[in-house]
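dumping these here so i dont lose them again. two proteins, back to back, each one seq then structure tokens. dont judge the mess
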Amino acid sequence: MTRQLNLPLRLSDSASFDNFLAAGNEEVLAAVRSVPGQERPSPALFIHGPPGSGKSHLLQALSRLTIDYQRLTVYVPAGAPGVGPELVAQLNADTVVCMDDLDQIVGDQAWEESLLELYERLAGGHGVLVAAALQPPAGLELKLADLSTRLAAGGAYRLRPLADEMLPAAMRLRASMRGFELPDSVSRYLVRRAPRDSAVLFGILDRIDQAAFSRQRRITVPFIKELEKEVTSSDR
């Protein structure tokens, strides 16, 4: 039986390859997306980039796609509460392991040893470790030099954040995948008012969509201003 492992880790409902705007990241998108369809993939693939560049989105989209391929997969946010080296020890040799925030465990001997053991286990089966961090393996200052080499075995790809001018298009794409149309006036307003970080903007957009649905309102700039006033009032 192939599925996502029964672990206390949830995938974002909105993470998919269909709502990821490549815009300069076509190579890394193709590399990650191809993983589930490879019968004998390289045991490891690495993606790195600054906060908000889409690393978590890609890893969760990969885990979701792997389920569609009827393969065993797990998304692991390293350093999150309840996530430790003992979790990695549970994973078998045919698992597609999507390891996020690898920076959080750099220098932890137990973690590094468990990841090296995981790599060797996956190399003996049909599994693969797809890991993400802010820096490439060579820049992580890992204690185990062998681990740095293994992590880059299948290539280390840099994920570039979306340029500011691409953020409205990315928001419109996300909105269309959620089943609603985002007016240009709204996307421009949000980009002006919120941090220029796609992850933050997408989170805001999702909350606005939920609020509009619950109140049966159209998403307009006046509606967003109403929500802003409510948040400001509740913070007083």
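---- next one ----
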Amino acid sequence: MGFLRNAWYMAAWDHEIGQGLTAKRILGEPIVMYRTGSGIAVALHDRCPHKAVPLHAGRVEGELIQCAYHGLRFDTHGVCQHNPHIKGAPNKLCVRAYPLAKRHGALWIWMGEPERANADTISDYSWFDVDGPYAVTHGYTHVEGGFGIMMDNLLDLSHAEYLHPNTVGTPGSSGSLQTSVVAGDDYVTVKRKVFDLPPSAVFRPHWSRSERIDQVSDMTWRPGANLLLDIRLSAAGDNSGEGLHFPSAHILTPETERTTHYFWAVARNFKQDDRQLTSAIKDAFQQTFTGEDKPIIEAIQRQFDIEGDVPTANFTIGDGGGVRAKRMLAGLIAGEQSVRA
């Protein structure tokens, strides 16, 4: 399928990038990230244009990054500002600089045409702002699976009953399920509602209002691969709007065609000051994904490595969202490629 380049991708959590040099591959390209002495976050192509040495092997000198090999120094725009081996202006040597923006506790990178980068188009994850009204925990997992497989996994929540029966899934939920897919110009939302069921194991310790609940789970995808799951629990038959709210961010940044940077965050609207609960929710989320989803995703990738990424059958009620999102993404990628051609 390839990659959509004119889009914002999450590069790191903001606190992860300091004056040390962080190397990361994004959309197959080597990137180095760091902060200057004045605190500016920078993303450059991780290759010195002189002898192709990775810039992350060097160091930060004030507002410049210095190559480890010959001491060339580049500014935040990738322009060489110091070459100790020649006299005069050294700025004919340049390295690509990528637009970088801070939103919602994260740093976002624009991999396409710089003049088209508009930070106002970054997906809205304001529920996860550190100074917001919700308690938030977040993390990162490297996945040996392509982002398309992960999109399918996240947009098809029908798997929860079978893959996660003892965590986030509820056995028997498919019998009371209502589901639909809504698509706009730049999003696809899968809407799921289950009625009059006991809460799943992961929610049960936090719910004491009734023995049975109604649960709404809306998963929204926006290009490139930014997803938001909005879960709301209420007492069965209660339409007052009161209940528990568990939004979660699922942000996929392709590393390569077959590997993915998976950034995630979970928020809640209750017991916001309970740090022990925050830690427990983080542990439960990590264990569910790494112990249940991740092995399946990576097994599918290994199968694709052997047989090729052949089209898969769409036979279940959960397939529609992934199909429509991939179709929209493929159209956007084709549009970019036709312009470049």
